[in-house]
Write a structure and sequence with these properties.
single chain; about 70 residues; mainly alpha; about 75% helix
Length: about 70
Amino acid sequence: MAEKYMEFGMVMSSSNLFEKLEMYEECVECLSWAGRREEAKQRALELIEKKPTAKIFCIYGELSGDVSYFKKAW
């Protein structure tokens, strides 16, 4: 359902669904697409502290412009 919402441009509704489903990386991406980059960066940092994954390192690297996070993902 959340992916369908994305197709229709309902980004924040999609973000809320992803969060309820505990698909936090996708939630952060939706926030970024909705223009809420600072909130997305903050949530990405929280995820990096709690449960770091290669995907969240890449998402944060893109949001912050810091290539060192891409290297960490690698």
